[in-house]
Specification:
Two copies of one chain form a homodimer. By secondary structure, chain A is of the alpha/beta class. Chain A is built from eleven helices and 15 strands. In chain A, α8 links the parallel β12 and β13. The longest helix of chain A has 12 residues. The two termini of chain A are about 35 Å apart.
Chain lengths: ~325, ~325
């Protein structure tokens, strides 16, 4: 499991009985955030803002919580339940869309049993949802995702129109020869489309940060951010303008005050150092400020030694 | 696990992938009925008419099915999910209300892993729901069940007013000295009450059945049916009148035609022999016919060698 598979992070929520196990899981996963004890707010935030959710509680309790928050297959976060004693890691929803893998990882870290209940032969299929994520776009109309899935699971091929097929999608082929087509950008009605996001890069940096430009560009490449689609780079540090120049895009300088005033449900919980400055964080806030009210946090802040990078996006058109 | 713990039977439903495992489970459990492949109707019937449900499918699929069908804690059937390969038996809802025990039993029969996720110390508590069942009554108002449970789980005692405490309910004491009270029959507003059912006994019998009276009385005693609350005994066989006499209650004779015309969603699937007679069964149909339109199947037909017995009920008052 690596960072870029969980770009929006993994939220860990527990009942009081499960707190100890929840803390272990949050430490063991590279991109996990302990949202603390269960509350309606914490759960809403987890569903709205994270790629994955780990609920440390009884399965029955977890089922009651997720019912009503489930969306179409392949949409919404992967949810894994871990019992308060850490004995089992159980993919609850979106098993094929990350939950099986997340449960496997947790079971390796905690010595739990991964309770995989989907039939094995299906497990090799790379989730369609990964495609939208890799292309930094979102599927429209979402209702079609489940239909595509069920036909693909029955062995049908789908065609990639207007984009190259990333690795691992054996059921996709380039061209227009299939009945099932996935369009990129310019969509045809009745088909599944990937609408690309306009991208906004937020950068936080220590005052003494060295080689900020090279560091940030390296992270963006690792995240496979398509350079031509970056609309703006923002920061509270003038030095970050070098990144914008390298990408050939606009730079926006923000003040600490603007960031302090900004609130968004998807901002990562802040560290103590940041809190003492009255800040919850910079990179995510700046990226979301630039993306505007319809913006979505696409990559939760990546923490490097001297800087942080986050990506927000809005659907074009 | 014995018969009287699952008086309304256990419904087994599967996807086509899980059919083989579903058949094994249906054979292994004493009171299980294979309702076949998943359909909305089969699921509705299972939720309305059975004490327990086993869903043989992926956990994510099962969650999508049960969401929206869940009632207050302690109400509705216990639901266990078994994956199509039979590796895991997972209590999904109403864990403390039978699902843990059902999953344990299945895991023993199939060699599966029972995925128990509730904290161990709670497992010893005999479910409140058992009380209503043992007293052949139903709780009113149902909204109070969850409140009573949460206070009892925190260590509070509840008082049994107007009935003797059956075995195993350590958190109940006879008397009126507790803040939490459970009344029997004559209820006080604001408290949890057990409203007793009027009981109707349906009897099916082979033409050549011997000692029908003694056999049926033995089964009724095993089921702990309170004799004084039986309002009527019914059958298509005149010989069954002996049972009514022994109980000091009314006997009603039915014709095959009346039974053929009768339809109720909770009738057990019929055997081939019965179907060839144009009948789905006798005991349940007769019991439900006597109980009238508001009647409920309380004990699914118990099959003895030469006869069957079923119990239906309506709430008094």
């Amino acid at each position: 499991m690596n960072l870029s598979d969980w770009p929006r992070g993994i939220a860990v929520i527990s009942t009081s009985e499960g707190r100890e196990v929840a803390e272990k899981i949050a430490k063991a996963l590279p991109n996990a955030y302990l949202l603390g004890d269960y509350s309606r707010d914490a759960l809403d935030e987890a569903f709205a803002c994270y790629s994955g959710i780990v609920l440390v509680m009884s399965l029955g309790g977890a089922v009651r919580l997720v019912c009503g928050r489930m969306s179409e297959k392949g949409e919404g976060p992967a949810v894994v339940v871990v019992d308060p004693l850490g004995k089992f890691a159980i993919p609850l929803i979106n098993s094929h869309w990350g939950a099986n893998e997340l449960a496997q990882t947790i079971s390796e870290k905690l010595g739990s049993i991964a309770v995989i209940t989907t039939v094995a032969e299906r497990k090799g299929m790379r989730p369609l949802e990964d495609l939208a994520r890799l292309l930094y776009g979102e599927f429209q109309p979402k209702e079609l995702i489940a239909k595509y899935y069920s036909r693909i699971l029955r062995g049908e091929k789908a065609c990639a129109v207007g984009f190259d097929v990333p690795e691992g999608f054996d059921y996709l082929e380039k061209g227009e020869g299939c009945e099932l087509k996935i369009y990129y950008g310019n969509c045809k009605e009745g088909y599944l489309c990937v609408k690309p996001y306009r991208l906004y890069i937020g950068i936080g940096a220590k005052r003494e940060a060295h080689s900020l430009r090279d560091g940030v560009l390296r992270v963006l490449d690792e995240l496979r951010v398509p350079r031509e689609r970056v609309k703006a780079v923002g920061s509270v540090r003038k030095e970050a303008e070098e990144v914008a120049k390298a990408l050939g895009t606009e730079f926006r300088l923000f003040s600490f005050d603007e960031i302090r005033r900004f609130d968004h449900e998807c901002l990562s919980p802040g560290s103590e150092t940041l809190s003492s400055l009255g800040l919850q964080g910079v990179a995510e806030a700046v990226a979301l400020l630039m993306a505007g009210p319809r913006g979505k946090l696409l990559v939760r802040k990546v923490r490097e030694k001297e800087f942080t990078v986050a990506v927000a996006g809005t659907v074009e058109g």
